[in-house]
Backbone:
């Protein structure tokens, strides 16, 4: 029993020691742009966060964890948006794995949906519509009727969905719900 308790104490001390170097390791990984290593280190630390439960150090360790996750997300955000906009499936898959490691899957999906919906949202938001009772315009600058716009918009949606259907299946482990949330 004593040996088992000492071994358990040793394991806890090793985890606590690993926390003492966490910030410097993650910051150096970020400086080297070794995002996968930083995510793996943060994932490792998150698993051992429970060791500090019910101790005075828990809140400071949790705050440190969130701050380092925020730094990693901020470091990746522009590269992620660039990868999404360039349809770089391999990079997006890698970024998705990193975001999952740091428990930020929802944020990745938000970046994904926001970037991929942009064309449709722009088309919708910039539509210049005339009142239903207005005569047909002589030029396109004045706008068009809602019926004319509505005839065009549904043709854009399937073309975007066709591209996204293929990409989503290669990146996300749950393509159907992901595509459904994209549409919604």
Residues:
């Amino acid at each position: 029993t004593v040996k088992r308790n000492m071994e358990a104490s040793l394991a806890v001390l090793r985890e606590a020691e690993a926390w003492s170097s966490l910030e410097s390791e993650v910051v150096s990984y970020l400086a080297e742009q070794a995002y996968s290593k930083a995510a793996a280190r943060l994932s490792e630390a998150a698993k051992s966060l429970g060791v500090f439960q019910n101790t005075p150090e828990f809140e400071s360790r949790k705050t440190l964890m969130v701050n380092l996750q925020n730094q990693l997300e901020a470091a990746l955000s522009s590269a992620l948006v660039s990868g999404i906009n360039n349809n770089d499936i391999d990079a997006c898959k890698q970024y998705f794995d990193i975001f999952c490691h740091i428990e930020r899957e929802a944020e990745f999906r938000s970046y994904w949906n926001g970037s991929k919906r942009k064309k449709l949202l722009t088309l919708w938001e910039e539509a210049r519509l005339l009142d239903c009772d207005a005569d047909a315009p002589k030029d396109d600058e004045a706008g068009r009727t809602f019926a004319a716009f509505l005839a065009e918009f549904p043709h854009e949606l399937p073309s975007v969905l066709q591209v996204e259907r293929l990409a989503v299946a290669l990146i996300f482990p749950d393509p159907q719900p992901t595509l459904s949330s994209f549409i919604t």
